[in-house]
Amino acid sequence: FIMAKQVEQLEKEKKELQERLKNQEKKIDYFERAKRLEEIPLIKTAYEEQRVHDMELWEQQEEERITTLQSEREKALEHKNRLSRMLEDRDLFEARLKASRRTVYEEKLKQFQERLAEERRNRLEERKKQRKEERRITYYREKEEEEQRLREEQLLK
């Protein structure tokens, strides 16, 4: 009997606890919903204020960017005008430099052509000697083969 009472008491406490939790959950849901309903207009106004502020900031930054670009362009034009006075000197320097480098190039090219011609002559001469030697060796070999053939014919007779 006591055990049954204890079990019944425990179940009753469990149900009360669940009911309290459910009521508490409903209250929290109600407060959250109410809070959101109150916050929505405030969030909208804050969003609009932020958007206006961002737009003003963007316009200000855009104006600053444009003015800096204009000032940089003016400086670049001044720099170009200042440097354009040196254009003739630069062209003269380039011409001298190219001429000196051209003479060095032509001298090296001439030396290379001479070495190339010399190497060609040497190789031609070497090939000529080699062919002459090959013809001489071939002649003596053929002569020897002919003599050998004649000797064999003599022996056969």
TrEMBL record:
Keyword DNA repair included in the entry's annotation: no
For the biological process aspect of GO, one term held by this record is: formation of cytoplasmic translation initiation complex
Keywords (alphabetical) are: Coiled coil
Look up keyword Cell inner membrane and say if it applies: no
Q: What GO molecular functions are on record for this protein?
A: mRNA binding; translation initiation factor activity
Q: Name one GO cellular component term.
A: multi-eIF complex
Q: Which residue stretches, if any, does this entry annotate as coiled coil?
A: 3-34, 59-149
PANTHER family with a match to the protein in the record: EUKARYOTIC TRANSLATION INITIATION FACTOR 3 SUBUNIT A, EUKARYOTIC TRANSLATION INITIATION FACTOR 3, THETA SUBUNIT
Q: What is this protein called?
A: EIF3A factor
